[in-house]
Amino acid sequence: MLNAAQKSFSHNFAALARYHETLKELSDINDESSMALLRTLYSVWKHNRQMMVVLITKMLRMTLMSANAVVFWLLSNLDQELHRFWLWEALFIVIKHACGHTNRCKKKFQQMQEKRAKMDRNDGEANQNFCFKEEEDSLGVILDDDVEEKRKELKELQEMLKNLFLNVLHKLVVFLSEHLVKYETAGRNYDTYWYRYMMGRFKEILLKYWHELFEMKQDIDKELFVTAGIDSRILEVYCQFTALRA
Fold first, then answer.
1. pTM of the model
2. Which of 218 and 36 is assigned the larger pLDDT?
3. What domains can be seen in the chain, in order of their start residue?
4. What is the C-alpha separation between 55 and 53, in angstroms, rounded?
């Protein structure tokens, strides 16, 4: 399908739209199915990396794969591409997509809570007038079940986002740790261009998504950074980041 659609962006988008149901069914099986889709995508477009970024973005918006699946694939199967700009561009797009989805759900949940509270404060004729005035409101009449359903959806999205950031940070810590061990074991200077580049990306993630990371700081500390095995040079960078809100 992708080989036949290599002519242009529009050809690719048309192919994805035509086979949307089939691809959706395949990707919904498990994350390994999403991995297979991404590997196929890479095999076709590895020489046109900008197309990779565009198609990953399109497939995310079409819900053909999860954000966590894309992040796992980018940071677990493409070691030879870690120094390339396209991979980090794709990663930031995925994170932005996940953050945006979660924030929109959070905003909608807050709006539903506020409207439900207003409805509860109105009874009798006052409540009827309120409902009449609000009948054009996009939220409509809010029931307790609606609020609870949205609460569950938000909780699931927040858990997904937490796991996504844990995955990204864990991978970066592993990359840096393995580099330090490898070079110091060989008696070589660890401060290479690659090390500086990856450390820069690590710092960029922390600063770019500081708001989300501080909201889940306790979980990140507990599950990732309160570990005896993390090199002090890596831990120092994280401590400097957390000190910004001390």
1. 0.84
2. 218
3. 2-65 (no CATH), 92-117+143-244 (1.25.40.180)
4. 6
